[in-house]
TrEMBL record:
Pfam families: Cu-oxidase, Cu-oxidase_2, Cu-oxidase_3. Residues 44-155, 170-333, 448-584 form the Plastocyanin-like domain. This is Laccase. It comes from Miscanthus lutarioriparius. Its cofactor is Cu cation. One of its GO terms (molecular function) is copper ion binding. Keywords: Apoplast, Copper, Lignin degradation, Metal-binding, Oxidoreductase, Repeat, Secreted, Signal.
Length: 602
């Protein structure tokens, strides 16, 4: 009698063990999937603002296709360029570990995919990242219409969100609309050496909605008349069930403007930014800079009989500027069709949220400064030892008009933008990464990007504005070379030379820890004490306060060449960029492999 249970137990143990082995196998092997897409990029005719217009778009869709992957998957995208323009695509926020070749910025990681049939296959792994990212063109102004969401869910089958599972989710991509070719807008800006024309409207999921200085008149009129079908063609609409919680995946794909986002009579709990989990942060306003994403839970807890606008409005950070715009989408509650009372209620005018003042920098700064990172087992923690410290000043300035700038005012000069007084010049013969790989940077780039600004001055004082001795920038294609695994701290310091403005600075190839931010000039003695070294947020794009600074830290554990630039497209072609060159490490898993066979060359 005594032995039987024992045998039984052994058998059960053996079965349990086999099950466990299978489970481990399943967890480790069975789940990494290959997510494959083909992007045909070409002309698409769309109706907006009462006119038909040709835009560049992917697979005839605007916004472009959503890429959905899980942590651990491999993403493969075959891009076929049928458009009339040079093209490259960036997978914004993807770390691209050991796959710098697939990063995408034109002339930095690759030469463009040539028009009329050029192809390139981007191949990369998504590992250790979860949340909302996006993809966009990284050449000229094409990203105005060539963009889409890139969503990474926790690994199957066991991964889960570090917050209660939402009932549903919605992707909300905010953008800007020009009623003319964006390539022409950029070309004109470069020829005149002046800023590009403003967009004529904002968009939510590619639709213009109501608002926007009268530009959204069609949607507004349709909404007023309760012509649901007509309104839906102009305005994005989200329907929710009362009492449920939804995950909003908000992406700012606008070219040049930061945005405030609100939903009337609803509030949010922010749970992630730039696909890095945050501590839950409760707010009724989301502030989001071009390049950034926010994952926010929204409980559908308002009166279900009414309709509510969600609204995006420009946050204008440029000192004394007056331009602003607003657009809307509609939030409605699922109604019982037989409930005629609530149908009548729903026919009332939708409620509009009260938006912050368009120049409310205090609200913007408070949002950005309130986010902290969620501490999780196994997630990266902030490096406490720093090998290299840099102070990088940046903003706008001027250069003498170049001969090619045929429409440039020679008395005034051309707008230029710079970091540490170097206005970044994109190479023309070969990409930075290809030159790096060949070990032959001569004639393509130099390794003398300075660790500090060449001249110290009162960076953010109004008295520096239009000071001619500070205004002129030098030009160059300079990189900062980093040893593999070096830890780097960068103080990003805005200047006020042509007016103070909040610049969203985006680093490719890494998430960085955002330790502190503030207004005025960074002061090591006073501000180091304010560093959050416990649970700082991680991001790939930091909105550096207007007339202020932000401090970031990262570990250079990803070999390749990585651009760091302002994500306002009005500033990038004028040179608000620099690049890090990260050397290979000592072990095979720290060496950048050679480029793929179809790598585009110039
Ligand atoms: C695409 O549109 C551009 C601009 O309207 C036009 O010049 C070009 O011919 C079009 N290309 C094709 C293949 O339709
Ligand atoms: C991506 O993951 C696959 C499978 O684990 C691996 O074979 C491949 O080398 C990885 N690619 C890169 C660029 O790391
Ligand atoms: C574009 O929009 C602006 C502002 O609404 C308007 O003045 C202009 O005429 C429009 N241009 C075209 C080509 O429709
Ligand atoms: C930019 O705006 C100016 C002034 O409204 C207009 O004359 C010009 O044609 C616009 N440029 C482009 C490329 O649309
Ligand atoms: C919406 O919010 C406003 C302002 O807080 C409030 O006055 C109004 O009663 C709310 N409406 C509904 C339907 O909840
Ligand atoms: C915001 O703009 C308004 C109206 O243009 C102006 O009166 C106010 O001073 C501005 N506020 C800030 C903080 O610049
Ligand atoms: C050129 O710039 C100067 C200095 O800013 C200005 O006074 C002049 O009016 C401009 N000329 C033209 C034609 O816009
Ligand atoms: C311009 O800046 C330089 C360098 O800081 C300074 O020496 C000079 O006094 C400033 N000029 C004016 C007019 O403020
Ligand atoms: C930047 O460099 C230019 C050219 O060397 C010089 O004239 C200017 O004073 C410098 N500006 C700053 C802010 O360092
Ligand atoms: C990189 O740094 C990490 C953390 O400091 C360390 O564990 C690792 O061994 C380093 N790798 C190399 C190749 O130096
Ligand atoms: C903004 O306006 C104020 C008050 O008119 C002025 O003192 C300041 O110089 C202006 N700033 C810029 C960057 O134009
Ligand atoms: C397109 O790219 C090629 C190769 O880099 C370059 O020679 C050409 O000038 C580019 N065309 C435009 C319009 O930028």
């Amino acid at each position: 009698m005594a032995r039987l249970p024992c045998t039984c137990t052994n058998l059960h143990l053996a079965i349990a063990f086999l099950c466990l082995l299978n489970l481990i196998n399943y967890l480790l092997l069975a789940d990494a999937a290959i997510v494959e897409h083909t992007f045909h990029v070409g002309n698409l005719s769309v109706q907006r603002l009462g006119q038909s217009q040709v835009i560049t778009a992917v697979n005839g869709q605007f916004p472009g296709p959503k890429i959905e992957a899980r942590d651990g998957d491999t993403v493969v995208v075959h891009v076929v360029n049928l458009s009339p323009y040079n093209l490259s695509i960036h997978w914004h926020g993807i770390l691209q570990r050991l796959s710098s070749w697939a990063d995408g910025p034109n002339m930095v990681s690759q030469c463009p995919i040539r028009p009329a049939g050029g192809t390139y296959t981007y191949r990369f792994n998504v590992t250790g990242q979860e949340g909302t990212l996006w993809w966009h063109a990284h050449v000229s102004f094409l990203r105005a219409t060539v963009y889409g969401a890139l969503i990474i869910r926790p690994a199957a089958p066991r991964g889960r969100y570090p917050f209660p599972r939402p009932h549903g989710e919605a992707t909300i991509i905010l953008g800007e609309w020009w009623n003319t070719s964006v390539v022409d807008v950029e070309r004109q800006a470069l020829l005149t050496g002046a800023g590009p024309n403003n967009s004529v409207a904002l968009t939510i999921n590619g639709l213009i909605g109501a608002g926007g200085g009268g530009c959204g008149a069609a949607a507004a009129a349709a909404a007023e008349n309760n012509n649901a079908a007509a309104a839906a063609a102009h305005q994005y609409q989200l329907t929710v069930e009362p009492g449920r919680t939804y995950l909003l995946r908000i992406i700012n794909a606008a070219l040049n403007y930061q945005l405030f986002f609100k939903v009337a009579n609803h509030s949010f709990t922010v749970v992630a930014a730039d696909a890095c989990y945050t501590d839950p942060y409760h707010t009724d306003v989301i502030v989001i800079a071009p390049g950034q994403t926010v994952d926010a839970l929204m409980r559908a807890d308002a009166h279900p009989g009414r309709r509510y606008y969600m609204a995006a409005q420009v946050y204008q950070s440029l000192a004394n500027a007056t331009y602003s715009a607003t657009t809307t989408a509609l939030l409605t509650y699922l109604q019982d069709a037989s409930d005629s009372h609530s149908r009548q209620e729903q026919e009332q005018q939708a409620l509009m949220p009260t938006m912050p003042a368009f120049n409310d920098s205090a609200t913007a700064q408070s949002f950005y400064a309130s986010l902290t990172g969620l501490l999780q087992d196994g997630a990266p923690t902030v490096p406490l030892h720093v090998d290299t410290r840099m102070l990088v000043t940046f903003g706008l300035g001027v250069t003498p008009c170049a001969p090619a700038q045929t429409l440039c005012n020679r008395t005034r000069g051309s707008v230029a933008a710079s970091m540490n007084n170097v206005s970044f010049q994109f190479p023309t013969a070969m990409s930075l990464l290809e030159a790096h790989m060949r070990g032959a940077p001569d004639g393509v780039y130099t390794r003398d990007f300075p660790d500090r600004p060449p001249v110290m001055f009162d960076f953010t004082s109004d008295s520096t504005t239009a000071n001619r001795s500070l205004m002129f920038t030098s030009k160059g294609t300079k990189v900062k070379t980093l040893r593999y695994n070096e830890t780097v701290e960068v103080v990003l310091q805005n200047t006020a030379i042509l007016g103070a403005e909040n610049h969203p600075v985006h680093l490719h190839g890494f998430n960085f820890f955002s330790l502190a931010q503030g207004t005025g000039n960074f002061n090591a003695h006073r501000h180091v004490r304010a560093y959050n070294l416990v649970n700082p947020q991680q991001r790939n794009t930091v909105a550096v306060p207007t007339g202020g600074w932000a401090v970031i830290r990262f570990t250079a554990d990803n070999p390749g060449v990585w651009i760091m630039h302002c994500h306002l497209d009005a500033h990038l072609p004028f040179g608000l960029a620099m690049a890090f060159e990260v050397d290979d490490g000592p072990t095979p898993d720290a060496v950048l492999p050679p480029p793929p066979p179809d790598y585009p060359r110039c």
